[in-house]
Write a structure and sequence with these properties.
Layout: E1 2-6, H1 20-32, E2 36-40, E3 63-65, H2 71-81, E4 85-87, H3 92-104, H4 107-110, E5 114-115, H5 120-127, H6 129-138, E6 146-149, H7 152-162, E7 166-170, E8 180-182, H8 188-196, E9 202-206, E10 212-220, E11 226-234, E12 247-249, H9 256-273, E13 277-285, E14 293-299, H10 304-313, H11 317-325, E15 352-358, E16 379-385, H12 388-398, H13 416-424, H14 430-439, H15 445-452, H16 456-475, H17 481-489, H18 494-501, H19 505-514, H20 522-530, H21 535-543
Parallel strand pairs: 1-2, 1-4, 2-3, 4-5
Antiparallel strand pairs: 6-9, 7-8, 7-9, 10-11, 10-13, 11-12, 12-15, 13-14, 15-16
């Protein structure tokens, strides 16, 4: 079979690199099954378009076309290559929208091209908000009060019915383009016009800001076997695009009842929609009424969250999705970790993974540093550890912005008012403002919660970091082994401990080694020996810094 795979698209915010992982895994899986793969992807800065990225060569695409993932270009390639099937789920929103247009025009049917995995009609039902709400209502799944509009008059009528404040989202849009919150009626028309610039459909929805945002990665095969591979929780409350938010996996503030409730809703919803392969379901959860939730959306494709989930759990979501598209069931796909069981299992983690986006907003002229429902981040990092304080500190160091941790802001805060401003307005500096507010005793956990609506549990964990930093500040020459060990458990680097205690890096490192305070590195050392070229990556991903060993 000849498979045409639509890749990760141009090098721009909201697409490209974040879908390179899923596309690369799909190519490897299709090739391993003996199929010919044609790739369309204009982005030369990806693994899937690099002819030297893989060894052996059998896992690279047979033919790569460096052209835009747009219907007019894809049509030419289909006429030339005459593929049997089309894979849409591995290139993000760009590939999905392209496939929908090709199907709607009748081009795929005319040329005998079938879409692998989730049927196009099902993709349409997840992308078209009107149909999606109807499908959810059929099984009692709760969704935000939402009205789809295709004209200004329809949008105004919807706003009047739902009431202000509200959120507007452009349907079929990439990276939250055209979306935003509308507080006042006088601002409504201008925001609707902006949303219509990105899509012919605008969604007018109830404002759920302050609710928790939760995601589940779900896999379903053609025999209706369905599992949730992992769930994730946003550090920021609803109102910040997932791609802009700090995300921890698995969730840490949900009770077991909440977790199981959302898991059950996920499986019921995905089965009813009829998705075949991998998908992502996103929730809003009321922090004051745990049983009150809303399904925000379902992405019937691999998302940027899927790459995080795959690397955090070791469960290769893209490879499994590709096998399912080829007709395999979960029980027939080998377990990528054990090699002896199957992919029909839900991973159980005894550690946490945390993702922080990286922004380079200073490179753009006249751009607001405020982050909200539209994506502005240009990349992200992931850290693994045993607890939230450890991974948040590691991840901050990995951003390569010159910061050693949450108390080492790249830009100094001038006073309490400056800290409060950075707490109130979400920006790349807010995580550092939380640390400064607690370290300087400007605000309590409860006061920060009222300003940010960040869950109190996260704030209490950051308070553990700041309280220990205060203690280190007073110890200086009297630093005991127990205090040093606790600092490492809370994610402090040797450099940061040295700064707080007034010692040098070498003094802290020597004391730590003499006290036998070291991370467990046996597995990492083994991997580093097997893949020497990846040594630095392995140590920084799992430990935060090679020098911390």
């Amino acid at each position: 079979m000849k498979i045409l795979l639509l890749g990760s698209g141009a090098l721009q915010i909201g697409q490209a690199g974040e879908f390179d992982y899923s596309g690369s895994q799909a190519i490897k899986t299709f090739k391993a099954a003996g199929h010919e793969v044609i790739l369309i992807n204009p982005n030369i800065a990806t693994i899937q378009t690099d002819p030297d990225a893989f060894s052996p060569k059998e896992v690279t695409a047979d033919q790569v076309y460096y052209i835009p993932v747009l219907p007019e270009f894809v049509e030419r390639i289909i006429k030339k290559e005459k593929p049997d099937a089309l894979a849409l789920s591995f290139g993000g929103q760009t590939a999905l929208n392209c496939g929908l247009e090709l199907e709607a025009s009748g081009f795929l049917a005319d040329h005998g091209v079938t879409v692998l995995g989730t049927p196009v009609s099902v993709i349409q039902s997840t992308e078209d908000r009107e149909i999606f709400v109807q499908k959810c209502n059929e099984i009692g799944t709760l969704v935000p009060r939402s009205i789809a509009a295709r004209t200004m008059d329809e949008a105004k009528a919807a706003a009047k019915k739902i009431g202000f404040p509200l959120i507007m989202r452009a349907g079929f849009a990439l990276g939250g383009k055209g979306s935003g919150f509308c507080e006042r009626e006088e601002d409504f028309e201008a925001q609707v016009q902006e949303a219509f610039a990105f899509s012919e459909q605008v969604l007018v929805e109830e404002d759920l800001r302050g609710w928790k945002e939760i995601e589940y990665e779900v896999v379903r095969d053609g025999d209706d076997n369905c599992i949730t591979v992992v769930n994730m929780e946003n550090f920021d409350p609803l109102g910040i695009h997932t791609g802009e938010s700090i995300v921890i996996s698995p969730s840490v503030t949900l009770s077991n009842n909440e977790y199981q409730m959302l898991r059950s809703v996920a499986i019921k919803t995905i089965r009813h929609l009829g998705i075949v392969g991998e998908c992502n379901i996103q929730y809003a959860l009321d922090p004051n009424r745990p049983e009150e939730y809303r399904v925000i959306e379902v992405n019937a494709r691999l998302s940027r969250s899927s790459a995080l989930a795959s690397k955090a759990t070791g469960y290769p979501l893209a490879a499994v999705a590709a096998d399912i598209m080829l007709g395999k069931t979960l029980a027939e796909i080998p377990n990528a970790i054990t090699k002896v069981t199957t992919a029909f299992f839900e991973p159980a983690l005894d550690y946490v993974a945390l993702k922080i986006p990286r922004w380079d907003l200073q490179k753009f002229r006249k751009v607001s540093h405020q982050i909200a429902t539209e994506m502005k981040s240009v990349g992200e990092v992931m850290a693994l550890g045993r607890n939230f304080p450890e991974v948040i500190q590691k991840a901050i160091r990995m951003l390569a912005i010159g910061s050693e941790g949450i108390l080492d802001s790249p830009l100094e805060f001038k006073n309490k008012e400056d800290v409060e401003s950075n707490l109130t307005i979400a920006s790349p500096r807010r995580i550092f403002a939380v640390g400064a507010a607690l370290f300087e005793d400007y605000f309590s956990v409860e006061e920060i919660f009222q300003l940010t609506k960040i869950d109190r549990w996260f704030l209490q964990q950051i308070e553990r970091i700041t309280n220990h930093a205060k203690k280190l500040n007073t110890l200086e020459s009297n630093l005991e082994s127990d205090d040093l060990k606790m600092a490492k458990i809370l994610g402090f680097s040797d450099n940061e401990i040295a700064r707080l205690t007034g010692k040098t890096f070498d003094q802290i490192r020597d004391q730590r080694k003499s006290s036998d305070i070291k991370p467990i590195t046996n597995q990492i050392d083994t991997l580093a020996a097997e893949f020497p070229a990846q040594t630095n990556y392995l140590y920084t991903t799992y430990l935060g810094a090679k020098d911390d060993v």
